[in-house]
Amino acid sequence: MSGVLPILRRELLALWVTPLAWVLLVVFLLIQGLSFYSIVVHVSSMTTASIDSGPVQAYFGQSIFLLVSLLLVCPALTMRVFAEERRSGTIEALLTAPVTPAGVVLGKYLATLATYVAMWAPTLLYILILRNTGQVDWRVVGSSYLGVFGVGAGYLAVGTLMSAMTKSQLTAFLLTVLVIFGLFILGIGEYVFEAGMLRDLSSHVSVLSQMDEMAKGIVDLRRLVFDGTLIGLPLFVTVRVVDSWRRG
Asked: What is the average pLDDT score of the chain?
């Protein structure tokens, strides 16, 4: 996987010197800020609250804003990764460089993942605000951010694959949204299907259940395995696709 670091630096520069990453960052933080504010206002108005219904648990495990932001941010971050290079023809120069297909894919993916993590970093201020007004369970905070990282990393891997499948950024964006939304709808099946294999499958892939569990400090190894699979499988296929370009 030679050439990962040069590709990583190249992609980070391409992301942050253009308005895309900055616009996404502003929109993302506005959505998260609105979500956090509404949750704090709601929790503060409650006369009684259980141990599982604090602002941290509600923010990570019960907020629809989190899922909506992932549905938009992850496809937007990955849509240009390969599609734009194929459209402009710069992919040819990249494929003739002394870098392996795996290095190209991993470098580009890590750049989007690093940007994704950077976008979430400012939300740590929300936790610091809560710490100054009451107690914060850092175990719950850690597991919640682990869930956000795992789900986002999987969605970014899917987006990387979709970007490699087309020369259009818009098409790559829409394909990624459809796949992510499809996984979301499949997860809702846990509330629809009768007890059995389909319900178990839906529960296993449900991002709602995963974030709800992790927002309570519950880290299920099966969730981490699914996240790892959702990362590894699309990236493996993407490497094969990039390798076919070089051979073709």
From this structure: 86
